[in-house]
Amino acid sequence: MLFTRKDFPEGFDFGVATSSYQIEGSRFGGAGRCQWDDFAATPGNTKNAENGSIAVDHYHRYESDLDLVAAGNFDCYRFSTSWARVMPDGFTVNPEGLDFYDRLTDAMLARGIKPCATLYHWELPVPILDRGGWRNRDIADWFAEYTHAIMSRIGDRMFSVAPINEPWCVAWLSHFLGYHAPGLKDIRATARAMHHVLLAHGRAIQTMRDLGMTNLGAVFNFEWADPADHSPEAAEKAALYDGIYNRWFLGGVFRGEYPANVLEGLGPHMPDRWQDDFPTITTPVDWCGLNYYTRKLIGPDGGAWPGLKEVEGPLEKTLMGWEIYPEGLYNFLTRTAREYTGTLPLIVTENGLASPDVIENGTVDDPQRSAYIEKHLQSVRRAIAEGIPVKGYYLWSLMDNYEWACGYEQRFGLVHVDFDTLERTPKASYHQLAQNLRR
Ligand code: GCO
Known about the structure:
Blueprint: E1 13-17, H1 20-23, H2 35-40, H3 58-71, E2 76-80, H4 83-86, H5 95-110, E3 114-120, H6 126-130, H7 139-154, E4 160-164, H8 167-175, H9 187-210, E5 217-227, H10 232-255, H11 260-266, H12 278-281, E6 287-300, E7 308-311, H13 326-341, E8 346-350, H14 367-385, E9 390-396, E10 415-417, E11 424-426, H15 428-436
Parallel strand pairs: 1-2, 1-9, 2-3, 3-4, 5-6, 6-8, 8-9
Antiparallel strand pairs: 6-7, 10-11
Bound molecules: D-gluconic acid.
């Protein structure tokens, strides 16, 4: 990898990211059942019906996992707290859950690692789902209560906090496409989730402000959308994909408006008086996080709104089948700053790839990952050179883990995990990063 810390501005943070359900082991420590436990227990939803009940047992191995973060010379650890662990029934605090995140926080600080928390990375407690989950407007208040419970305990030691990881996944992927829990394909549920997820974000930011907290942000996942051909129809559908995936969330949080092309489809299904919620949704944040992996080629498709489809692209692909397109990261950094966030700090909160990594003679070679990281960091540097305020870059992920519907096949880690023995083996990319990030 042809870069070192010196190629980035003073104070630029490098980090690694994980999430609770993907690593901790949901069966440990008195956690309640979450929507992913039930989703995985329903045939056909996850590969081999795999779930996160043990995951990679980070609940018991967090000390040695954090040693890997420190030895990799990373500044930040982006982790998430599980609502179902902190409040197993959605409402009542489980002291063991709070204790765990308290220990985890202190273990980061003891190693000089900055704790960067996400409050929700999809572990909806099933009693909340029984009340309608993201379809129910009350979820914003319930989420604020959870925010208060966890941040009253660890908020004093957080470097940064974002309420909700990837609102598009929470709403569209899970309620329209049905690929993630709770696995709905329902436009009315989707419209409500698309709005309530941002209302909950705003309520959580307000709750943390009331606790006196600073350095609060929002984390969105973005996919660059290119038209599949030169037709006006493809251009229109690519713009619609961009609206649904990217602009809805940026528009809501930073402008207090939703894109007109998306409202054409979702408008009739929106909750009453949704416009009145923008003062809460636009509660100011201190930074904007971008999770970026790939782009999509989009063309028209028959049928009901949105009437679009993904077309296979020609670029090199990762094990997920995602095209490698570093220009998309540059495009998003520049466009987000110029059209939505201005001088607000931007952080790449996730970037990385899955590859079929194997241990050979005790080592794991992952050249595709190293090349991917290097190319995406070039995009970051290009944006910085143009004056875009990018302040950090975090890799997904510290270690191989539960990749949701894809189960344990897709290895996104810098550290290899043997899913039988749970042994950790740093990959070549980890060693290169540790070398290049020396202080
Ligand atoms: C996401 C999540 C992660 C995933 C990662 C790879 O972006 O979907 O934040 O949980 O594991 O992105 O798909």
